[in-house]
Design a protein that fits this description.
The complex is a heterodimer of chains A (about 160) and B (about 1000). Chain A has about 160 residues and is mainly alpha-helical. Chain A has 8 helices and no strands. Chain A starts with 16 loop residues before the first helix and ends with a helix. The N terminus of chain B is likely disordered. Classes of the chains: A mainly alpha (about 160), B alpha/beta (about 1000). At the A-B interface, helix 5 of A face helix 6 and helix 27 of B.
């Protein structure tokens, strides 16, 4: 005779989610061959690290690292909208160059043509900023070489 | 203003009604290419078939054209038109690639991103199916042309199941269209006249303070993250879990960079994120485990976390529809009190045990009892929650391994009378046609069915038919539920008198010559004898018995006779009476007399209550029938099964669920195996049932929770819910659908088919099923009704409606070629009226009606474990009419006792005009003896099917305490008034002074 009896279902042990995530990560790393790669790498660490350091620690690599950094810092000083204007202008200039490159050589402008060019306002409006840019660019090239970080410090 | 194909004064129908046979082909020129397609087909669907991309956001085939998003412009005959509103016409010339159309589409897309902040990588909706993301990306919108601006509204997370973020809402109106015209509740709207339009709930800004029934349609169709399931929030992707304090600055950072780099890199990142999520999120097709509608959908999970339920348009029954339980009621799967180990009763308490020990004990005790008292001393109860394959195994275990036909299922508590009524008259114990037939009928006669709460997704289809196509509903019910509120005609007969008014209408129809004489002559037998039996059922007699005026009945009878096509729908309000089979038969008689059978959009449709209550009977968990309803007493049939199973089988019909109880009391049944049924509370006269269990020598219960029935067990076995196994269900329209394993069984649990297999092995049987498909193959090989059923034919969202021939041809409508009787004719079945049991008298002066609630399922063992569902209906209660409340000096919140001849319960009062006079209503919403309605029910049962007369309860009311807490929270949808309208009312958007038609630049693109 089975009389009713109550039973409190015990709360389940909390699943170890971190452990499950870790297991999953391990499985994925294994299945994608990443673990093998890392194991191989670690196994050969003394040799590989020596090769890497020799590769990095030479004049060319040091220059590359510094120049990339300079480029990044330079880009950081340019407001995006200004840079967008420059890249757009550059794209259009390249397009124009490409279009004209295919044309048959038109020959020299001649005296009359040269005279007309001297009075072409559009041309001088275009060349003006370019010439000013070249002027400043030349002046800056004439300054003594220095590390950019130092220069930034001086400016501050 | 462009011409629209939609009439603003009526709703847009969801599913197109056009059939293939009606299609006329036409030729259409698209950008210079001549294409052929069916006239009337929506242009966007047609273009998609030809892999031509016409961008669109607000259009969804299930919703039809809404015309809000302005991204689908095309040129037709030189004029710009919204492509979503166009349908194919012969000679139509469409330009998608014209500059004007392209500019207009881009202007539309620019406006959308002006009111939706694209932060895809940290957005819960970035799962590859975000339509805003996909359209903006596919259209190659380069950058944010109109600046995004926040709206002057806060995110609304008041609702228990979803949140609404006005800042992300593009005002496409999909949610409104779904609420107004698919769900047809009419809660959501957009106030286009506001300075900053937004979605509103009954005109207010708080979702949870509204008539919202939480069906989830709005969330399902939202094309972005404006409406989002709370289960997704912070869970969907690797970056969505970031705290807002990190997320917001991260979004701001990206938004500062975005004007420079444009959308392209942002989209690239989001693509990476979506692909990243893809490896984690699993989408599995499953079938709902609640009512008998059979909604199928994809369940999104990450490991065991259920992220959301996502319905899909190709689901054969529900399409994009769900109800609150199917969409949001799945917390029970990961409930902390899941059983995870077998339990054995030992010295007056339960102790955990191994599977081997449990199997060995069950086998030993079953065989001992069989040896001592014979095989009929054991009985088996299959589960309407479990699969067809598991039901098949339960009856095979009973018959082939133990040797008894004492096997049944809970259809004995609900729809056995309906089956009986259909067997008597039309032949098959199932719905005559499909849900589509119900939709297509001109008139529905709905008796004792609270369809909107018990079968919500079927109700949405019926409400659509009523709203969009003028279908008429005659509803007979004691209680003023939603179907009554919406009825064209409502009658309220006295309890238990349905047979009288139905028979009186039939007699009137025949007396007046309104019957379908040709149909009766050609397709129906037994008219003369039936006519004789109708003699007592005059309209005057009916008026006296039922309280419905004679001329009202005559009018209704004429409406039914005059209608071109009629379907009868009924549920527990009909079947759970002492004459349940007879009333079911009477409804079938009514359909036959009026010629409403044997053709589309007609017939009888008893609403099956549980997800697989149809399939559990279909697969032989019945005391007198094998799978496919063949009789165990039939020597030929039995011989087939004996050959198939390699055993000798018993031929005597066994005990059913109801008669088993008395047999326990009489010590004729000594042992019982109950699979996933809360029999201790869901059978009538629950105390009597529990005392019957007390008499057993040995009892096994296979369950997922420790229920009241488990308390009686000697061994409890931890089974698995539907999402942890494979199998098939059969819904109320006889439709097989396959469910796939969403996640493996919880550690310690096993799929029920596997438990049954291993138990049979412990009992010495040579069962070796490795997959449920093998079980189905075996059943199909033995039961002609399912000959062509196979898992291959049920792949994905494919489905089959029985009978299924060996070649796979199924039967959406049962009787188009005649009835399954010898001469192919249906039968009219004569009936007498038997008065209901447990009449109201001076001592027991209240009639206690009972049934389901939308938010809970049956007794509540599953739904009570959902925090959201429980927040809407925290406990059980009794609905009391204002008149009765006044007479007894009680009010909402009062604690009362209801005392019947058989037991008593204590419940709080809800005063409502859903009930009238001395009729009260108690939901089946309780899992303990103190509140469960069946403590009040009697042992009376339907005389033909033994279904308990659950609906025949009378009781007296004693006031325990006048002051008390209201049983339902103030934000329950029942207390709010919906705001139905024809649809999104997009024309109001166009009528705004600041609306300009694309491609002209918008004045306030961020506002609407």
């Amino acid at each position: 005779m089975a009389k009713a009896i109550h039973y409190e279902v015990p709360a389940p042990a909390m699943p170890d989610e971190a452990r499950e995530e870790l297991d999953k990560l391990l499985r994925n790393l294994h299945e994608r061959g990443v673990l093998r790669l890392l194991n191989d790498l670690l196994g050969a660490f003394p040799e590989v690290s020596g090769i890497l350091m020799r590769g990095i620690n030479n004049e060319d690599s040091r220059n590359a690292i510094q120049n990339l950094s300079l480029l990044a810092m330079g880009l950081g000083r340019i407001p995006p909208e200004r840079f967008a204007t420059v890249t757009r202008a550059l794209t259009e200039a390249l397009d124009a160059m490409e279009e004209n490159a295919g044309d048959r050589a038109p020959g020299g402008p001649g005296v009359t043509g040269t005279y007309r060019l001297l009075h072409d306002d559009d041309l001088w409006r275009g060349l003006g900023p370019l010439l000013e840019g070249i002027r400043r660019f030349g002046a800056r090239l004439g300054e003594p070489e220095e590390k950019p970080a130092a220069r930034r410090h001086d400016l501050e | 203003m462009t011409e629209s194909t939609t009439d603003p004064n009526r709703g847009t129908p969801g599913r197109p009604q056009q059939t293939d046979t009606e299609q006329v082909l036409c030729s259409v020129n698209v950008d210079g290419n001549l294409l052929i397609g069916p006239a009337g087909k929506p242009l966007i669907d047609f273009l998609e078939q030809h892999r031509i991309d016409l961008p669109h956001v607000c259009y969804l085939p299930s919703l039809g054209p809404i015309e809000t998003c302005d991204t689908c412009w095309v040129e037709v005959d030189g004029e710009l038109q919204r492509g979503c509103a166009l349908t194919l016409k012969d000679g139509m010339s469409v330009r998608i690639d014209s500059e004007a159309a392209r500019d207009a589409r881009h202007e539309g897309a620019d406006r959308i991103v002006a009111r939706h902040e694209l932060y895809c990588s940290v957005c819960e909706n970035n799962n590859g199916d975000c339509e805003v993301h996909n359209v903006v990306e596919r259209m190659e919108i380069p950058y944010q042309r109109y600046p995004y601006k926040e709206k002057p509204y806060e995110l609304d997370d008041s609702h228990p199941f979803y949140q609404y973020d006005p800042d992300q809402c593009i005002l496409c109106g999909r949610c409104v269209e779904a609420c107004q015209n698919i769900q047809v509740t009419g809660t959501l709207s957009i106030d286009w006249e506001r300075d900053d339009p937004r979605v509103l709930w009954d005109g207010g800004e708080v979702a949870n303070e509204s008539s919202c029934v939480s069906c989830g349609h709005c969330v399902t169709v939202c094309p972005c993250n404006a409406l989002m399931e709370k289960t997704m929030v912070g869970q969907a992707g690797p970056l969505t879990a970031l705290p807002e304090s990190v997320k917001r600055p991260a979004i701001d950072l990206v938004k500062r960079v975005e004007p420079t780099v444009g959308f392209q890199p942002i989209f690239a990142l989001s693509e990476v994120d979506a692909a990243w999520r893809e490896s984690e999120i699993k989408r599995t097709k499953t079938v709902c485990t609640y009512c008998g509608v059979g909604c199928a959908f994809e369940m999104w999970t990450r490991d065991r976390t259920i992220l959301k339920v996502q319905p899909v348009e190709e689901a054969p029954v529900n399409g994009i529809s769900t109800c609150v339980k199917g969409k949001f009621g799945w917390d029970f799967v990961n409930a902390e009190d899941r059983l995870t180990t077998p339990l054995i009763r030992d010295n007056g308490e339960f102790r955990p045990a191994s599977w081997e020990e449990a199997y060995a004990l069950i086998a030993r005790r079953f065989l001992e009892i069989k040896e001592a008292h014979g095989p009929d001393a054991l009985s088996f109860v299959a589960s309407s929650k479990c699969t067809n394959e598991e039901s098949y195994l339960v009856q095979k275990l009973a018959r082939a391994v133990i040797g008894t036909n004492n096997v049944d299922n809970c259809s004995r508590y609900c729809q056995s009378p309906a089956t009986q009524g259909l067997w008597r008259t039309v032949g098959y114990g199932g719905d005559e046609g499909s849900i589509e037939d119900l939709e297509g009928a001109e008139l529905l006669v709905i008796v004792g069915s609270n369809t909107a709460e018990s079968h919500p997704v079927i109700a949405t289809r019926l409400k659509q038919a009523q709203k969009h196509r003028g279908q008429r509903h005659i509803v007979a019910d004691l209680r003023r539920h939603e179907m009554v509120e919406r009825a064209d005609e409502h009658i309220h007969p006295r309890p238990g008198t349905d047979l009288v008014w139905i028979s009186a209408m039939i007699k009137y129809i025949l007396d007046q010559g309104l019957e379908d004489r040709a149909f009766l002559d050609e397709k129906v037998n037994g008219l003369d004898e039936y006519l004789d039996s109708l003699a007592p059922f005059t309209l005057e007699y009916a008026e006296a018995e039922t309280g419905i005026a004679a001329d009202r009945l005559a009018d209704l009878a004429r409406q039914i006779a005059d209608a071109g096509s009629v379907c009868a729908i009924w549920a527990m309000g009909v079947t759970q009476h002492v004459n349940g089979s007879d009333v079911s038969t009477a409804l079938a008689n009514l359909m036959l007399v009026t010629g409403n059978s044997g053709r589309p959009n007609t017939g009888c449709y008893p609403m099956r209550g549980h997800n697989n209550v149809q399939g559990t009977s279909d697969f032989g968990a019945m005391p007198g029938r094998f799978p496919g309803y063949e009789f165990v007493a039939d020597d030929q049939v039995r011989a087939r099964y004996e050959a198939g199973w390699g055993v000798t089988l018993p031929k005597e019909k066994g005990y059913n669920n109801h008669t088993m109880v008395q047999a326990m009391h009489d010590r004729k049944i000594r042992a019982m195996y109950v699979l996933a049924e809360e029999m201790a509370l869901v059978d009538a006269n629950a105390r009597h049932v529990q005392e019957g269990f007390d008499q057993l020598d040995f009892m096994v219960v296979q369950e997922i929770f420790f229920t009241r029935t488990c308390e009686q067990a000697d061994v409890v076995l931890p089974g698995a819910p539907s999402v942890e196994k494979e199998g098939t269900y059969v819904n109320t329209e006889r439709r097989f659908q396959r469910l796939y394993e969403v996640m493996p069984p919880l550690t310690g649990c096993k799929a029920d088919w596997r438990i049954l297999t291993e138990l049979a092995q412990a009992l010495g049987a040579d069962w070796d099923y490795q997959n449920p498909s093998e079980i189905m193959d075996e059943a199909a090989s033995l039961a002609p009704m399912f000959a062509g059923v196979s898992y291959d034919r049920l792949e994905g969202f494919d489905s089959l409606q029985w009978p299924v021939r060996a070649d796979g041809a199924d039967t959406p409508h049962l009787y188009l070629d005649g009835y399954p009787f010898e001469d192919g004719k249906a039968r009219l079945y004569p009936l007498d009226f038997h008065a209901p049991s447990e009449p109201v008298n001076e001592e027991y002066d209240l009639h206690v009606n009972n049934g389901r609630l939308l938010e809970t399922f049956h007794e509540g063992n599953l739904t009570h474990r959902s925090r959201g569902l429980r927040s809407q209906v925290p406990g059980n209660f009794v609905e009391v009419s204002p008149q009765l409340a006044e007479a007894r000096g009680i009010k909402t919140g009062s604690l009362v006792k209801l005392i019947s001849r058989h037991g008593e319960i204590s419940v709080h009062v809800l005063v409502t005009d859903r009930v009238a006079g001395n009729e009260v209503y108690v939901p089946e919403n309780a899992t303990d003896n103190e509140h469960a309605i069946n403590m009040l029910a009697s042992n009376h049962a339907d005389k033909d099917s033994h279904t308990p007369a659950f609906k025949e309860i009378s009781a007296r009311l004693e006031v325990v305490q006048v002051e008390g807490p209201a049983p339902l929270p103030a934000d329950n949808f029942r207390f709010w008034t919906a705001t139905p309208q024809s649809g999104v009312l997009t024309e109001r958007k166009w009528q705004r002074q600041d609306y300009v038609q694309p491609p002209a630049a918008a004045r306030n693109p961020e506002k609407f």
